[in-house]
Amino acid sequence: MKITMIGSGYVGLVSGTCFADFGHDVVCVDKDKSKIDALLAGRIPIFEPGLDHLVASNVAAGRLKFTTDLAEGVRDADAVFIAVGTPSRRGDGHADLSYVYAAAEEIAQAITGFTVIVDKSTVPVGTGDEVERIIRAANPDADFAVVSNPEFLREGAAIDDFKRPDRIVIGGDDQRALEVMRQVYRPLYLNKSPIVEMSRRGAELTKYAANAFLAVKITFINEIADLCEKVGADVQDVARGIGLDNRIGSKFLHAGPGYGGSCFPKDTLALLKTSQDYDAPQRIVEAVVAVNDNRKRAMGRKVIHACGDDVRGKTIAVLGLTFKPNTDDMRDSPAIAVIQTLQDAGASIRAYDPEGMEQAKKVLENVTYCDGSYQTMEGADALVIVTEWDAFRALDLDRVKSLLSQPILIDLRNIYPREMVEKAGFTYSAIGR
Ligand code: UDX
C-alpha cells in the first residue's frame, strides 16, 4: 500500500514509521521545512524511545520518505492520513480544526485515482463530514472516501502501542475505503488486534470517550486517595482490591498529582464543548476536569504542609518535570502548578528531569536547573518527586539525607515504601497512604 501522512508530529511520525516497518510505502509530509530537513538528516525532532532506530532502518530500506511537498506525497497514494495538530482553541477550549481543514483543501487538489482520506487527528464528531464537504467542493471530480481512524498511542510507549494495539477503530461506510483500511492494518492481524468497524461519527466519539473514561478512572482513584489519607487506609491496597475485579481492571488506578499531557486535558475539554453544542451534558467529565485542575495546585500545598506549612525562604528540590516518564513533554504537567505554587509561597526551586529540561525552561522561570538527581538536592530543605522516572526509583537514601538540610521526602507518585524511607530517617509523605 502507498500511504501518505500529512503532519510529521508525534502521531504522524510514529504511525508513518510503523506503517513503513510493516512493509508499506510511506511518505511523511510536513509544512515545517526545518522539521523535514532534520528528518532527512536522520535527526528525530521528538523524544520517543526506539523511534530513531526505526526511522533509520526504514529510510535505509527505502520505505520511508520525508517531504514538504504535499501534492507529491498525495499523488498515487492509496490512503492519505491527516495527522496534524488539533490544539485547544485559545479562548473557548473547542478543538482548533484549522490545520485539519487546510490539509483537506490541499489534499483535494492533489488526489489522483481512488484515495481514502483518513482522519487520524483527534477531531470532534462531525469533522469527517466537513472534511468530505471541503474536498468535494474543492475538487468535484475527485474519487475519494473519508474514514475516521483515531489513534490511542501513549507517549513513551507509542511504538509498542502501534504495533500491538488493544484494538483498531475504523469509522466509515464506504466499502472500497474499508477494504483499503483492512489492507493497511493487515500486518496487525498477526498480533490478533481486533478491528472494530463502525460509523464515522461513532469512531470520532470513541476516541474522546476513551480518553475521558481514562481521565475519570485516574481522577476517581485520586479522590479515593484523599479519603484514604483521612481514614488511615492505603490507596495502593484499595486500587489492587478493586482492580482485580475484571469489570474494573487494574490499569490507570495509580493515584498521583493529577493527569497532564497533550491528550487528556485537551480532549476532555473538547468533549465538554461538543456535549454542550449537542445539549447532552457530560457532568461526570465536567467534574473530572474541575477536580483535576484543582488537584495540581493542591499538590503544591501538600508540599508546603509537609514542610511545616511554611516554605518562605526555603529551597525545594524537585525531581521529574515532564507530565510522565519517558517523554520530554511538559504540556499540562502537574510539575508546573506544583512549582508555581511553591514559588508563590516564597520557595526557591532546584529541579532536574532526564529529558524535559529544555521544554521546562520554556514554561518555568526562576528555577535552578541541575545536572542530576543528587546535585538537585544539595542544600535543599525538602525533596519532591513529581514524575516517576526509573532513575528516581532507587535513590541512595543515606546520600539523599546527607545532601538535604532537612530529611523531608514528598513522593507524589508513591514509588517508595513508607517503612523503608522512615527507617532511613525521613519524614515521608505520599499520596493516599
Ligand atoms: C493518553 C492515552 O493513554 C492514549 O491512549 C491517547 O492516545 C493519548 O493520551 P498519554 O497522554 O501519552 O496517552 O499518557 P498516559 O500514559 O495515558 O498518561 C496520561 C496522564 O495520566 C499522565 O499525566 C499520567 O501520569 C497520568 N496517570 C496515568 C495517572 O496519574 N495515573 C494512572 O494510573 C495513569
UniProtKB/TrEMBL annotation:
Binding site for NAD(+): 30, 35, 86, 122, 155, 266, 331
Similarity field: Belongs to the UDP-glucose/GDP-mannose dehydrogenase family.
UniProt xrefs under InterPro entries: 6-PGluconate_DH-like_C_sf, NAD(P)-bd_dom_sf, UDP-Glc/GDP-Man, UDP-Glc/GDP-Man_DH_C, UDP-Glc/GDP-Man_DH_C_sf, UDP-Glc/GDP-Man_DH_dimer, UDP-Glc/GDP-Man_DH_N, UDPglc_DH_bac
PANTHER family named in the record: UDP-GLUCOSE 6-DEHYDROGENASE TUAD (PTHR43750)
Metabolic or biological pathway: Nucleotide-sugar biosynthesis; UDP-alpha-D-glucuronate biosynthesis; UDP-alpha-D-glucuronate from UDP-alpha-D-glucose: step 1/1
GO biological process: polysaccharide biosynthetic process; UDP-glucuronate biosynthetic process
Reactions catalysed according to its record: UDP-alpha-D-glucose + 2 NAD(+) + H2O = UDP-alpha-D-glucuronate + 2 NADH + 3 H(+)
Residue ranges of every copy of the UDP-glucose/GDP-mannose dehydrogenase C-terminal domain listed in the record: 317-418
Protein name: UDP-glucose 6-dehydrogenase
MF annotations from Gene Ontology: NAD binding; UDP-glucose 6-dehydrogenase activity
Keywords, ordered alphabetically: NAD, Oxidoreductase
Enzyme Commission identifier(s): 1.1.1.22
Positions that bind substrate: 152-155, 207, 252-256, 260, 324
Residues annotated as catalytic: 263 (nucleophile)
SUPFAM superfamilies the UniProt entry points to: 6-phosphogluconate dehydrogenase C-terminal domain-like, NAD(P)-binding Rossmann-fold domains, UDP-glucose/GDP-mannose dehydrogenase C-terminal domain
Organism superkingdom: Bacteria
